[in-house]
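Form 12-C: Joint structure prediction
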Amino acid sequence: QKEVEQDPGPLSVPEGAIVSLNCTYSNSAFQYFMWYRQYSRKGPELLMYTYSSGNKEDGRFTAQVDKSSKYISLFIRDSQPSDSATYLCAMTADDKIIFGKGTRLHILP
Amino acid sequence: ETGVTQSPTHLIKTRGQQVTLRCSSQSGHNTVSWYQQALGQGPQFIFQYYREEENGRGNFPPRFSGLQFPNYSSELNVNALELDDSALYLCASSLTGVETQYFGPGTRLLVL
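Section 2 - Result
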């Protein structure tokens, strides 16, 4: 079993819809949970990071962590064509960081 | 405040050659991490430098080596290049921890 699992997609949704992106993990030692956005041929851009279970909101983005289920989510409200990118989840334990494979998201105008 | 920069942007090498990639950290950041991202995959951690000392290493062979300089800029060296080394190489800098690291645009390496 891989430490971090993320569906690669692609996921296509119409503009304005709510997008839900998810990752599961197996290592209960993971402490920080991050979401990155990566446009084609660019480096990843940190969107949000969380430490504890629960929700964290930043503008149109909400990160959710459920440590009991080992499951994290990123919700994007009012999705825009400019949100089309690959979204990577990442997790850390003792300065070791593991990334998911990324989910390719297409927002259809 | 300048962001993380990397050079060169693209590079083509042949199998067996050696390559050096460079990274300038975001101003004030004392920690640099290097990652390898193969096509369609997430970044894989190579190693991290904190104040010029290696501070953690992923599952990469010794032919991957690095340096961090007093101004916190960094180099990644890869010897005896293999075809599977073709990837996007990313560096990221941080001040407080990897959970708040910022990535550069990457160097795309093609090994023929």
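Section 3 - Comments
The mean pLDDT of chain A is 94. The longest strand of chain A covers residues 85-93.
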